[in-house]
Design brief:
3-stranded mixed sheet, 8 helices, alpha/beta, about 290 residues, about 25% strand, binds arginine
């Protein structure tokens, strides 16, 4: 870039003071209707099998989430739910998909182990090459594509050795981030990729080294408050402009709006009883064309 092409200082100041125009792109999501949703075991601190779960409310809320995505112009595919797999609704954990290839999941908890094969078969039938993993990884729960890098969580579920596996498979740089609070057991409960090189995260959920990394890489990140993380507000789904977010996360929604994003509140209170929010329900398959919405 030549000196003349740089914006004048005055124009530059105006641009940085105003929220950027955010451009949404059309996404393809894979989801699984919570027809067999229940909390029958506890594999994270959110789950309490002694508390009642209203499955019909979960279904209503999930249907609304799907309608929200479709209303935004996104494509939603659905895998058949299977009895006896109450967490199968959390599709994000089933794989990490990038450039038409996928690393299949290998679940840390035996309660979810059978989901891996079901999702792998679905993805293969959809024409996606799925690599079987060597190490434990819980898909997009812990592996998030941010621009050209992959932010990779570990500490509770995904084995850090799988991060090298992801790097080898994708040829991308993988940044290991260590989670330290059991309530934020997957990276997508503590960090949200917004698009445009921007993220939101809860610093307290990470160890010191990871916090340093995040602060250095994302000096302009939105730092979430505990109150928003505690309602799984960071478990949000952005298309670059529209951010589908748990409705209780009001401060985070306001912070997003101030940065030029369009927060779209949804109610997923029933699914939160299993420790999941919008992002957990949503496996991104790619497809980044402009939506114009
Ligand atoms: N009950 C599920 C589990 O503990 C919830 C998974 C949430 N998924 C996510 N991407 N954070 O595995």
């Amino acid at each position: 870039m030549t000196a003349q092409m740089l914006p004048s200082p005055r124009r530059w100041r105006r641009q940085t003071l105003q929220p950027a125009a955010r451009i949404p792109t059309r996404r393809r999501y894979l989801m699984c209707r919570p027809e067999h949703f229940a909390v029958t075991y506890a594999i994270n601190p959110w789950m309490d099998p002694s508390q009642p779960v209203d499955r019909s409310a979960a279904l209503r809320q999930w249907d609304e989430l799907v309608a929200t995505y479709r209303g935004l112009g996104h494509e939603v595919l659905a895998v058949d739910p299977v009895p006896g797999l109450p967490d199968m609704v959390f599709a994000a954990n089933a794989a990490f998909v990038i450039d038409g290839i996928a690393l299949g999941a290998r679940f840390a908890k035996r309660e979810r182990a059978d989901e891996a094969r079901l999702y792998r078969e679905y993805l293969q039938a959809a024409g996606i090459t799925v690599k079987k993993p060597t190490y434990v990884n819980e898909g997009e729960g812990d592996l998030l594509l941010e621009s050209d890098v992959i932010l990779a969580g570990t500490g509770f579920r995904t084995d850090a050795r799988s991060h090298d596996e992801v790097a080898a498979l994708t040829g991308r740089q993988v940044v290991t981030l260590r989670l330290v609070d059991p309530r934020y057991y997957h990276l997508d409960t503590a960090l949200c990729v917004l698009g445009d090189g921007q993220i939101a995260y809860l610093p307290e959920a990470f160890d010191g080294e990871s916090r340093t990394q995040l602060a250095r890489r994302y000096p302009d990140a939105i730092l979430a408050e505990v109150a928003d993380a505690e309602v799984l507000g960071l478990n949000a789904v952005s298309d670059g402009r529209n951010v589908v977010i748990n409705r209780e996360a009001e401060n985070l929604a306001a912070a997003l709006a101030a940065r030029g994003y369009n927060p779209i509140p949804v109610d997923l209170s029933e699914l939160r009883k299993a420790g999941g929010g919008p992002k957990c329900c949503t496996l991104e398959l790619g497809g980044f064309r402009p939506t114009g919405r």
